[in-house]
Amino acid sequence: MSRISTHVLDASRGRPAENVVVHLQTADGGTLDSGTTDADGRISDLGPDALAAGHYRLRFEVAEYFAATGTPAFYPVITIDFTVEAGEGHYHVPILLSPFAYSTYRGS
Q1: What does the pLDDT look like over 3-36, one tens digit per residue?
Q2: How, if at all, do strands 91-92 and 4-10 pair?
Q3: Of 14, 22, 42, 84, which one's alpha carbon is 20 to 30 angstroms from that of 28?
Q4: H or E stretch including 57?
Q5: Which CATH number fits the domain that encloses residue 45?
């Protein structure tokens, strides 16, 4: 099982954001893995089973999602930088999305 998962919810539509491409990257922008959100807006298995402690990034390609829904939006890409600590388990990094704002938190 991967140590990284995400969930993208579209707050402006009140539903999950399906078909959002998400890249798991190293701090310098190298891509480790990519996935696409399912009908529930989730990617439950992103990246390898083990990640070294360090700085990582999730890059959410939201321009295509908003274009597909016919919604003008300000952010074409959302990047979330986070730190993986040694000995910690799973990291769930969701975003709450709207055309002109977003928020995130460390989920469970």
Answers
A1: 899 999 999 999 999 999 999 999 998 999 999 9
A2: parallel
A3: 42
A4: strand 54-61
A5: 2.60.40.180
Q: How many domains does the chain have?
A: 1
Residue 10 burial (C-beta neighbours within 10 Å; 0-12, 13-18, 19+): buried
- Annotated binding residues, written as ranges, equal 7, 42, 105
Domain region containing 12: 4-104
How large a percentage of the chain has pLDDT more than 70? 98
Query: Rounded distance, CA 29 to CA 18, Å?
Result: 24
Which residues line the annotated binding site for substrate? 7, 42, 105
For residue 76, count other CB atoms closer than 10 A to its CB.
Answer: 12
In one-letter notation, the amino acid at residue 31 is T
